[in-house]
Hints:
The complex is a heterodimer of chains A (114) and B (119).
Chain A: E1 3-5, E2 10-14, E3 19-21, E4 24-26, E5 33-39, E6 46-52, E7 60-61, E8 64-69, E9 74-79, E10 88-95, E11 102-104, E12 108-113
Parallel strand pairs in A: 2-12
Antiparallel strand pairs in A: 1-4, 3-9, 5-6, 5-10, 7-8, 8-9, 10-11, 10-12
Chain B: E1 4-7, E2 10-13, E3 19-25, E4 31-37, E5 43-49, E6 54-56, E7 64-67, E8 75-78, E9 87-94, E10 109-110, E11 114-118
Parallel strand pairs in B: 2-11
Antiparallel strand pairs in B: 1-3, 3-8, 4-5, 4-9, 5-6, 7-8, 9-10, 9-11
Amino acid sequence: xxxxxxxxxxxxxxxxxxxxxxxxxxxxxxxxxxxxxxxxxxxxxxxxxxxxxxxxxxxxxxxxxxxxxxxxxxxxxxxxxxxxxxxxxxxxxxxxxxxxxxxxxxxxxxxxxx
Amino acid sequence: xxxxxxxxxxxxxxxxxxxxxxxxxxxxxxxxxxxxxxxxxxxxxxxxxxxxxxxxxxxxxxxxxxxxxxxxxxxxxxxxxxxxxxxxxxxxxxxxxxxxxxxxxxxxxxxxxxxxxxx
Lengths: 114, 119
């Protein structure tokens, strides 16, 4: 069975600064995807970034980037130039291809302070 | 042009009732899912379903059943509602694919959620 661990239940960062959210996972699968989703107070689940396990290059999406360490089973999210709108709960997710297995971490609540 | 939609957005009902939540996706995806998010915000998958296979999380009570009239819809039926069923339920969809496929394959897109309150 897969497990996804987000060890930081809550974090805060000053506006314009950089913050890193941690995520580790455990699996025996070799082919899988990792995601970060954002859930603002509106409760909509919004895709932030996606990483294919077979790709060595870390994914980036504007201010969001990941540090994917496959051997260490680590998948952290870095948010640069934090904005007030980044305040949300962030979920790390592990998904196997072909709708196989889907596991979400318990979430990290990020507060961006003005 | 909503991609994944759910109705109703809020549902308040008495214990013991039977209720349904509807989900529709217009993305042309072939797989749909239901998730439960409890009061602590923990998100757990309940079902994944395509026209070939229903995968059920073994922890889900059999009072919950997904029903798919067609590829674009996956409704969630709940019988004999209990207090502990109170939660936000999310529908999601994805297009399954093989390794090396399009960058969007196997990415799950979520509906807005349905907050269910059982009194």
